[in-house]
Write a structure and sequence with these properties.
about 140 residues
């Protein structure tokens, strides 16, 4: 009985190590895949926000991303499928994307705050410039 248990463990061990999807020859490196997927998130949000700009300029968001990173759709699909077959790697990719997007959002928000304060200072300077200045009366006594 003990031998059957050990044999079962070996079978289970080797079955778990079996690759579900073979590594493609032109696999997109993990760091580049992170950048591609991050860009796709940004472009798709932009597309959903203002699709008319994409239509006016005849831009397909997915094609734009593929050209930017010099990959084709088949290479992307095969690489994505390969990474998806490795849940721990795929989760790490999306965790990194989330971290990068949060960092970029913080930078954008900080720049927006800075621009808002500059705009406010400019408005106050213009208001002060257009405000009639009080002239001291040299004849009056204080």
């Amino acid at each position: 009985m003990r031998k059957i248990g050990i044999l079962g463990m070996f079978v289970l061990f080797f079955a778990c190590n079996e690759q579900l999807v073979e590594k493609p020859e032109n696999l997109i490196p993990k760091d580049k895949m992170v950048e591609i997927l991050k860009e796709m998130v940004i472009v798709n949000v932009a597309k959903n926000t203002n699709i008319t700009k994409f239509q006016e300029n005849k831009i397909d968001p997915t094609t734009y991303v593929f050209k930017k990173f010099n990959v084709d759709s088949l290479q992307f699909v095969l690489s994505d499928r390969y990474y998806a077959s490795k849940p721990d790697v795929y989760e790490a990719i999306y965790t990194e994307i989330d971290t990068l997007l949060k960092r970029e959002k913080k930078v954008i928000n900080d720049l927006k705050k800075l621009q808002d304060s500059v705009n406010k200072a400019e408005k106050e300077a213009l208001k002060d410039k257009n405000k009639p200045k009080k002239i001291k009366d040299s004849l009056s006594k204080k």
